[in-house]
Amino acid sequence: MSKISDAFSLIDILKEAIRREHDSYDYYHKAASVAVKPASKKMFLHLAEMEKGHASELMRHLTDLEAQSHIDKALTSSF
User: Which residues of 41-73 are buried (b: 16+ CB within 10 A; e: fewer)?
Assistant: First the structure.
């Protein structure tokens, strides 16, 4: 597999991971909204915020990888 193909497959993986983090955030946020006990509500909201942090971290990696992919493509297309 070429370096560019590897980058595109990694981009797809990161996009899927971000989507899953958003789904998990929604799940925990919904669980918090129906939780009866304050401790449960607090735990679910904390878990939701963790998922949001994961999504942000993955988004940073995705942005970096996409930028590098464009640079690699530009460098290799001129040869």
Answer: eeebbebbeebbebbeebeeebeebbeebeeee
